[in-house]
Amino acid sequence: MNAPEKLPLFELSTWSTRQLADVEQALSRWVACPSGAPAPAGLGDAMRYAVLDGGKRLRPLLVMAACEAVGGNAQAALRSACAVELIHAYSLVHDDMPCMDNDVLRRGKPTVHVKFGQAQALLAGDALQALAFELLTPEDDSVSAATQAALCRMLALAAGFQGMAGGQAIDLASVGKPLSSEQLHEMHRLKTGALLQASVMMGAACGSIGAATQSALRDYGAAVGLAFQVVDDILDVTADSATLGKTAGKDAAQDKPTFVSLMGLDASRDYAQKLLAQALASLKASGLKNTDALSALADMLVNRSA
Amino acid sequence: MNAPEKLPLFELSTWSTRQLADVEQALSRWVACPSGAPAPAGLGDAMRYAVLDGGKRLRPLLVMAACEAVGGNAQAALRSACAVELIHAYSLVHDDMPCMDNDVLRRGKPTVHVKFGQAQALLAGDALQALAFELLTPEDDSVSAATQAALCRMLALAAGFQGMAGGQAIDLASVGKPLSSEQLHEMHRLKTGALLQASVMMGAACGSIGAATQSALRDYGAAVGLAFQVVDDILDVTADSATLGKTAGKDAAQDKPTFVSLMGLDASRDYAQKLLAQALASLKASGLKNTDALSALADMLVNRSA
Is A172 within 8 Å of B146 when comparing Cβ atoms? Predict the structure, then answer.
């Protein structure tokens, strides 16, 4: 009798490297010039600087992993992966501006407005948002019209006042004010959670799934989105700036309410693990088989050190 | 024998009043809360302030007129009309900010950043852009998926680096520099022309037309878009601030290249009339019958006094 054949272990780093090769190549091509002429008067340089050569690409990876789980249209997923990353990139450009967080460094490099001036940074962010929707609506028949429309809607909701921009507005209004646990959750659900969850759901929308699976993936996305922020708050206290690639201890210095300031460090760590368990349970409940990448991403996200 | 029955003359003001009743009502409803909860933390107030109760609504009127000419889906046109106006409104909010034009008054009222602060103005602009794409992608079946996708693509192209944002970048780079006639045309083709032309083409995309008609309407849109800017440059010199509702003589004061500075006042006036003739000829070439509104809008646009 032979020993049972061992299944190959899923290697997140191998999987991510393969996915990101496609995503980086697509971003390079599309941010340079998706169709027609390149961006004029330095705008293209500012857009590329904001997007290329940096970032963990967590949102694109969630899109690709969700598409893989549902066996969806890879071309639609690649476009979605780039689109969510463009929205994320534009939000960083605008957030870093003097009237918002006034950050001069990001990923160890001067921020876009430091390098290109505030006006160009404002325009580059605006143009990146438009480009995200352009990528989702190719003229060829690689992505069905129904999928294009659904993806645009999901991205618009996640980026707008009911999502990221709304969360930013709550953030603005909350500096120096005590927030209840409920308010803090609501702020992060919108500010970072909505786009992370949309990444999962847009990947899933590249395939065809039933309502129960959709609902389970939505729960997974919500848990992962929230866990991401809880861990961010923990790392802001426990990691140093060099490891983070951004200024550590900034939240406390700016008197921003965080999960750590609200519930303490140990309880925050427990909470992150609880959210990870929830995310994994939702994956199981989805009934999908091919969830290795989604599961490993949730684990990485919660147990990361930077 | 009876006298030949007289056709009723087309009354632009009557037509516009009727269209704008629908558009204003839709904007009020959708900018307040298109679906789900209203915008949090003052963001909704800033968005509504930026959009409601002001503006000539020229772009929405072009959408409605083009849809009428092709006998298109009125619901799709109404959504498109609001979407182009949201893009226009967001661009004004961002343009007025201190790092761009630093304007404190618009339509006789404090600009959004003066009233709500720069951070909120930045966010309101960002959220208005996202909302435009949300409006174009309703979940119900009032607009076909193919039309939704086409409208999103047209709007993204017109708003982004190949359109409005690209034109702004050229504008930024051109202050105090002599521009050739070709460069000035290119700047305005992108900065204002692209969204005006897209308004026409989005209205037309609400119906079903052949390639020749589409091409003729594209020519109409290009002529009207350019004429709009030529007339703007003329009025900046000839009208007073009270009539314009904005600061007259600003272009010259800021040493911005204009059609008047390039070709003089009389030649600019001739040029505007030539563009009007081109626009009307394109309408004729379109083969469409119901072009009264498009034709009257072109005439109004060129012969306006404010």
Answer: no
Q: How near does any CA of chain A get to the CA of B250, in Å?
A: 19
Q: Look at A131 and B156 and tell me if their CB atoms are within 8 Å.
A: yes
* Residue contact A152–B149, C-beta within 8 A: yes
**Among chain A residues, CA nearest to B154:** A134
Can you list the domains of chain B with their CATH numbers?
15-303 (1.10.600.10)
Give exposure, A159-186, as e/b (b: 16+ Cβ within 10 Å): bbbbbbbbbbbbbbbbeeeebeeebbbb
Q: Which chain B residue has its CA at the smallest distance from A40's CA?
A: B166
Burial of A274 (0-12, 13-18, 19+ CB in 10 A): middle
Residues of A in contact with B126 (CB under 8 A): 90-91, 94, 125-126, 129, 159, 165
- Cβ proximity of B154 and B201 under 8 Å: yes
At residue A246, the pLDDT reads 66
Residue B105 phi/psi, 5-degree rounding, is -125, 140
The angle formed by the CA atoms of residues B178, B180 and B181, to the nearest 5 degrees, is 130
What pLDDT digit, counting tens, does each position of A117-143 carry?
Answer: 999 999 999 999 999 999 999 999 999
Give the length of chain A: 306
Q: Which two tokens stand for residue A296?
A: 């490993």
ipTM rounded to 2 decimals: 0.94
Q: Name residue, tokens 């305005």.
A: B188
Q: Which member of A123, A166, A186 has the closest CB to residue B165?
A: A123
Most A CBs within 10 Å, among B143, B161, B179, to test the A interface: B161
Nearest to B36 among A99, A144, A162 (CB): A162
- Nearest Cα residue to A147 out of A211, A67, A57: A67
Exposed, middle or buried: residue B142 (CB in 10 Å: 0-12, 13-18, 19+)? middle
**How many whole angstroms separate alpha carbon A297 and alpha carbon A280?**
10
State how far the Cα of A21 lies from the Cα of B155, in Å rounded to an integer.
Answer: 30
Residues B293-306 pLDDT 10s: 999 999 999 999 88
Optimal mutation site among A101, A140, A142, A161, interface B, most CBs of chain B within 10 A: A161
pTM above 0.90, yes or no: yes
Return left, alpha or beta for A140; rule: phi > 0 is left, psi -120 to 50 is alpha, else beta: beta
Smallest Cα distance from A297 to chain B, Å: 28
Residue in this structure with the two tokens 């083969």, named with its chain if needed: B287
- Spell out the alpha helix ranges (H) of chain A: 12-32, 43-51, 58-70, 74-96, 112-116, 118-135, 145-159, 164-174, 181-188, 194-205, 211-238, 241-244, 250-253, 259-263, 265-285, 292-303
Candidates A118, A136, A165; nearest CB to B43: A165
